[in-house]
Amino acid sequence: MSFQSPQLAPQVVLSGHGLVKYYGNVVGLAGVDVGVRSGEALAVMGPSGNGKTTLLHVLAGILTPDQGEVWLGGERVDNLNDAARTVLRRRRLGFVFQDNQLLAELPADENVALPLMVDGLSRRDAIGRARNMLAQVGLAQEAGRRPGELSGGQAQRVAIARALVGEPQVVFADEPTGALDAATGSQVIDLLIGAATYRGAAVVVVTHDNSVAARCHRVLTIVDGRVSESMGAAR
Ligand SMILES: Nc1ncnc2c1ncn2[C@@H]1O[C@H](COP(=O)(O)OP(=O)(O)OP(=O)(O)O)[C@@H](O)[C@H]1O
């Protein structure tokens, strides 16, 4: 007998329906359906050149699909104009890339504070929240250091802090451990998934790394722009 009420199950926060994307004649996505729940980590795997990054970019509003729909928190978002999608990415989504994409001339706290300041928060409040977030990823002592003065793993933790500081509904990560050694990569992926899902965010992570996928709740395999396999328990 189960005591779990369906109403208490985490909601699907992000979904794609019938997603198709072409680059000229090249098929990026050939009809993908996907959904991810709040607090759930979804790994997207598959051979090189088969549509993983395209799927991430379409779900994140970086690319618009040629067919299909993307819904975020009960709102259709693929048909928003460019300006509205830019605001949506800044306010409701977080991003972690393989190369951390930190600004080299800014210290860690200013890198993390930047998206908040762009969104209108005062510098003082933004830096305060950024330092608090850096402390939560174990980098309180490094807040004043520039990216060039950090290790690869530390820099990626700053990128995670920057992705989470705006309290996003979904965090997208593209090969977040690709530039790190195995031990550092394990720490970084545990931090990313742990910190994001603890806050109730969903995580969508594109990876070639089985050990990263093993830390996710579900794994979606994309071959030739289609879902070839979906593994893992629905939460
Ligand atoms: N900007 C682009 N212009 C033209 N073709 C593109 C573009 N981006 C991707 N493609 C093509 O779309 C297909 C899917 O690419 P995508 O980057 O989504 O694959 P991937 O699975 O993420 O690959 P990898 O694992 O190598 O990163 C490939 O055939 C690729 O060459």
TrEMBL record:
InterPro entries the record matches: AAA+_ATPase (IPR003593), ABC_transporter-like_ATP-bd (IPR003439), ABC_transporter-like_CS (IPR017871), ABC_transpr_LolD-like (IPR015854), MacB-like_ATP-bd (IPR017911), P-loop_NTPase (IPR027417)
Classification via SUPFAM superfamilies: P-loop containing nucleoside triphosphate hydrolases (SSF52540)
Alphabetically ordered keywords of this record: ATP-binding, Nucleotide-binding, Transport
UniProt organism field: Kribbella sandramycini
Nucleotide-binding as UniProt keyword: yes
Record-linked SMART domains: AAA
A GO cellular component entry from the record: plasma membrane
Name the UniProt record assigns to this protein: ABC transporter ATP-binding protein
Ranges where the ABC transporter domain occurs: 14-234
Molecular-function GO terms, alphabetical: ATP binding; ATP hydrolysis activity; transmembrane transporter activity
PROSITE patterns per record: ABC_TRANSPORTER_1, ABC_TRANSPORTER_2
